[in-house]
Description:
Layout (H helix, E strand, L loop, with lengths): L1 E6 L3 H9 L6 E6 L6 H10 L5 H9 L4 H8 L16 H13 L2 H12 L4 E4 L6 E6 L4 E3 L1 H9 L4 E7 L6 H8 L3 E4 L4 H5 L8 H5 L6 E4 L14 H12 L5 E5 L5 H8 L16 E5 L11 H17 L3
Parallel strand pairs: 1-2, 1-7, 2-3, 7-8, 8-9, 9-10
Antiparallel strand pairs: 4-5, 4-6
Helix pairs in contact: 1-3, 1-13, 2-5, 5-6
Amino acid sequence: MNVGCFGGGTGLPSVLGGLKSNPWLSVNAVVTMFDSGGSSGQLRDELGVLPPGDILKCALALARNTREARRVLLARLPALDHARLGGHTGGNLLLSMMQRYGGNFLEAIDALRVLLGCQGRVWPVSVEHASVCAEYGDGSMLSGEVEVDAGQSSGRLVRRLWLEPSVSIHPVVASAIAEFDAVIIGPGSFYTSLMPIFLVRGIADALAQVKGPVILIANLLTEGRGMIGFTAADAVARIEDAIQRRVDVVIANMKWPSPRVLGRYALEHKEPLALGSLPEYCELVGGELWTSDIARHDRLRLAYAVWSVLSRRLLGED
Length: 318
């Protein structure tokens, strides 16, 4: 089964790492390309390249020897006199140099995939430069992934989200998506890792070609004061509006850690993501997916939950 996983940040690599060893699956990552923070944002601004960070993390998650690859490519270079390389990871610099001097980002990613022996493919949703922009409930507007996230976290409700300038999906990526048997979305920062992917022109048309289910992996927590009261059903509604098709399945955590752990996240104005009123056609698959003190899906349990959906929906009950 040829499956496509959509997202970015730290959530998507966790899904990829859990699914890559399943011999029934050919795993693809479709990655957001609008990161403006940290090493990726600095390289984008200084070198004029596309942000490499999320692409690199996904390639590492699919690598044959993930631990060794991470040790080498996620190491940060020390600050150097009269140079701007300090603080960047070796992998970010490698991918940026391959892109800048090779001139083709898709070929650079493919070369990295071969180098790492990846068990799957990584696709940028677009190779055009753009920034995430948001308009909030109070009428204010911000531009840039870091700024948009900070505005929401500070308590402003996101009313509208768009990309500036408007960008299109790469034709090769659109063709790859059309061949997917199923779509898996998330987990990840809703407004800055997930939604921007579906704002790219042509993404809805590509997804319309997918005959299998659209599966949303619900986040464990809301993401700040601007998302108080936000539910999995709200996420479904916004994604459906963007992609112009139904979300068929929601995979959600149903058992929470101790009050001590939740209290720590409450200090950051993050609360367990409630289900809300899911549409009748949307199947709920629940489980104990949060098993540690850190708000992160258990990789193996999540992979099993995804496989349970794929096997039933694509292979049949029998």
